[in-house]
Amino acid sequence: MKIGIDKIGFYIPHLYVDMNKLAVSRNVEPEKFTIGIGQEKMAVPPITQDPVTLAANAALEILDEKDKKEIDFVIFGTESGIDSSKSAAVYVHDLLDINPYARAIEVKQACYGTTAGIQMAKGHIALNPESKVLVLGSDIARYGLNTSGEATQGAGAVALVISANPSILELEDQSVYFTTDIMDFWRPIYSDKAFVDGKLSNEQYIAFFSKVWEQYKTKTGLELKDFEAICYHLPYTKMGLKALRTVLDEGTEDVKDRLMENYKISARYNRNVGNIYTGSLYLSFLSLLARKEDLDADSRIGLFSYGSGAVGEFFTGLLQADYREHLHVENHIKLFSARKEITVAEYEEIFQETLPTDGSTIELDIDNDPATICLAGMADNKRQYVNKTK
Question: Does CATH place domain 3-170+327-387 in 3.40.47.10?
Answer without folding.
Answer: yes
